[in-house]
Amino acid sequence: MERAASSKKSNVAYLANGIKHWFKDNLGIIIALLVLCVALSVNPITAKTFLTVKNIFNVLRQISTNLFLACGMTMVIILGGIDLSVGSIIALSGCLAAGAVVRYNLPLGVALLIGVLVGLTIGLFNGVVISRTTIPPFIVTLATMNIAKGLAYVYTGGSPVRVVTKEWQFLGAGYIGSVPTPVIILIVVLIVTAIIMNKTRMGRYIYAVGGNAQAAEFSGIKVSRVKFFVYAYSGLMAGLAGIVLASRMYSGQPTAGEGAEMDAIAAVVVGGTSMAGGYGKIGGTIIGGLIIGILNNGLNLLNVNSFWQYVIKGAVILLAVFIDYLRQENKDRIKVSVK
């Protein structure tokens, strides 16, 4: 009995310590998120609508797609790579899943599985090429981005593939109780991603390879396997995002996902993941995704011209990268002074 009580206390202490470190590591972006929320809450134009339950759930539903991508992108960037194909995977997976229902009368479960497998297949292809050659990830994923986008347009002829059944709409536009279905799926995905990154050998290998691939190879880590897994996971997340977004829009659209890779990268970078690789946390990515989502929502509520929204988001990304640069410079300076 005493042993069980002691074990329970140690678990609580471990959780409390983890939460404390999470707040400490992400204090800067947490403050930025709070400032953004307060600014939108007191602004006369947005005060009445921003903090309503409907708007909050709307924001969470909208950021779910971005955070699916950001989960995979966090691993990719920690690895020191990049994945530009995820936005086009969203379009192709959504179009093929919708087409499976409308054109071929396949069961909904099969159609959704096809959409996810499309993303996984492209991710596996990226992983094979990147892990077995010296071709830069930027070039490989740029190529697959264009291939996936082209296939989406070829398959649809440039027109949306509409699905109007309630079963189809449930995944992206439905509710479980009072909580939007995409939010429930997102919670599961975030937990799985956090476990992979923090509690598994593969997670430790990702950080090791991102920090120094050559040293990781010498220590016995199969670097090619780690790269293969990370890009496959990124493709899987993009496929999942594709079917959720297609469900929310009641159709598979070849234009869906345009620029989605940029929002995912923004969420990851704003969340504190280093573009140099080797450092980053999924907890920071969650906050980064919230900042990008709330920023988008706030700009829309303020009726800011969509062209200016691109400028503002670009400035936020540049600021985040600059902060990362200063942090890296400070680390290097400390290392030199210690030596």
UniProtKB/TrEMBL annotation:
Q: Which domain of life is it from?
A: Bacteria
Q: What residues form the membrane-spanning segments? A: 27-46, 67-100, 106-125, 137-155, 175-197, 228-250, 307-326
Question: What are the entry keywords?
Answer: Cell membrane, Membrane, Transmembrane, Transmembrane helix
Topology versus the membrane, per the UniProt entry?
Multi-pass membrane protein
Cellular-component GO terms for this entry: plasma membrane
The record's GO molecular-function terms, alphabetically, read: transmembrane transporter activity
InterPro entries associated with the record:
ABC_transp_permease
- A Pfam cross-reference name: BPD_transp_2
Q: Where in the cell is it found?
A: Cell membrane
Q: Where the protein is mainly located, per its record?
A: membrane
- PANTHER family noted in UniProt: ABC TRANSPORTER PERMEASE PROTEIN YPHD-RELATED-RELATED, RIBOSE IMPORT PERMEASE PROTEIN RBSC
> What is this protein's name?
Monosaccharide ABC transporter membrane protein, CUT2 family
